[in-house]
Automatic annotation (TrEMBL):
A Pfam family that the UniProt record links to this protein: GFO_IDH_MocA_C3
Signal peptide: none
Protein name: Oxidoreductase
InterPro entries noted in UniProt: Gfo/Idh/MocA-like_OxRdtase_N, Gfo/Idh/MocA_Oxidoreductase, GFO_IDH_MocA-like_dom, NAD(P)-bd_dom_sf
A GO molecular-function descriptor: nucleotide binding
Keywords: Signal
Domain of life assignment: Bacteria
Length: 327
């Protein structure tokens, strides 16, 4: 049995909404970890976050946080246009790293990050936290155990109306094509595409058609894609961010059954076969990244292998780049 992991001190770069609710509390609540320091670009934001969340230290720059010798590991929770620069600085400092998803602006940047950490023999994680949620683990186990037989095809269709922020054309990095060419696709679709390869295996083909139907912002708002996976499974997907209909449905069809579930939220999943039907509880914990962060602790402790590391996260960027036509 592996010996307990000594307390690992984490620093977080970026103090936005994700850290407030999803990830920051997870790093504080994981027994083997300590949230030791935070930094943010906006003056006073790190200090405010540290005060409200009882974080003992804060810095006004990322470099100051990275250079702190008391910090063992760093979570990069900034917009993706800064991920490459910050990740390379963390690798240079020889520290463990977790990067918020998507891993970087594109697949080439992901490769640079992976190479930097591999050359230093450093652990690299990417926050595709759904791979660690109990409901999605249960679905994967059902697939791996042949519940619906050999998998034939997978599809995902996601649509939603524009937000008030979209309609008012308020500045938003998620819809700025210089940061996210695919708009919300890069934030939303990355989760589902990552799950597809988690369930099915690596994709070998991805191709898309992209459009800006609403002209509310510079990025795409409507995308369709076809996919092929290395085990002869076919796939399709669509995303529309200007639709009347809210829809989030992933379906996996096998030779003897079908699985239906949503990527987001906690609606129950269903598995129907020739012999029976089953409902899977998809309840999400609070904080939602709790199991993901605990899995990092387990990985560092040597008790399990983390499901979301640099290579699989980079593959998700490869799929997105292919769909967007930039690779």
């Amino acid at each position: 049995m592996a010996s307990p992991t000594p307390s690992i001190r984490w620093g977080i770069i970026g103090c936005g909404d994700v850290c407030e609710k999803k990830s920051g509390p997870a790093y504080q609540q994981t027994p083997a970890f300590e949230l030791y320091a935070v930094s943010a670009r906006s003056p006073g934001k790190a200090q405010d976050f540290a005060r409200r969340h009882s974080v003992p230290h804060y810095y006004e720059t990322a470099q100051q946080l990275i250079d702190d010798p008391s910090i063992d590991a760093i979570y990069i929770a900034t917009p993706p246009d800064s991920h490459l620069e910050l990740a390379l600085l963390v690798a240079k400092a020889k520290k463990i790293c977790c990067i918020e998803k998507p891993m970087a602006l594109n697949f080439i940047q992901c490769q640079q990050i992976v190479d930097a950490f591999e050359s230093q023999k450093l652990e690299l994680f990417v926050a595709y936290y759904r791979r660690s949620l109990p409901g999605f683990i249960a679905l994967k186990n059902a697939l791996d155990n042949g519940k619906i037989g050999r998998i034939r095809q997978i599809s995902w269709h996601y649509s939603r109306p524009p937000s008030d922020k979209d309609l008012s054309q308020t500045q938003n990095w998620r819809t700025d094509k210089s940061i996210a060419l695919g708009g919300y696709f890069e934030d939303i679709a990355s989760h589902g595409l990552n799950l597809m390869s988690y369930f099915i295996g690596p994709a070998i083909h991805a191709q898309g058609i992209c459009s800006n139907q609403q002209q509310l912002y510079s990025a795409h708002d409507a995308i369709v894609a076809n996919l092929a996976f290395e085990n002869n499974v076919t796939g399709s997907a669509s995303w529309n961010f200007g639709s009347y209909l809210y829809q989030d449905k992933m379906q996996i069809i096998g030779e003897s059954g079908v699985m239906d579930f949503a990527v987001f939220g906690d609606s129950p999943a269903t598995i129907a076969t020739r012999d029976d039907s089953q409902v899977i509880n998809m309840h999400t914990p609070n904080p939602i990244q709790g199991p993901f962060v605990q899995a990092i602790a387990d990985h560092l402790n040597g008790t399990s292998i983390h499901p979301s590391q640099g290579e699989s996260a980079g593959h998700t960027n490869w799929i997105m780049d292919k769909i967007l036509g930039v690779l």
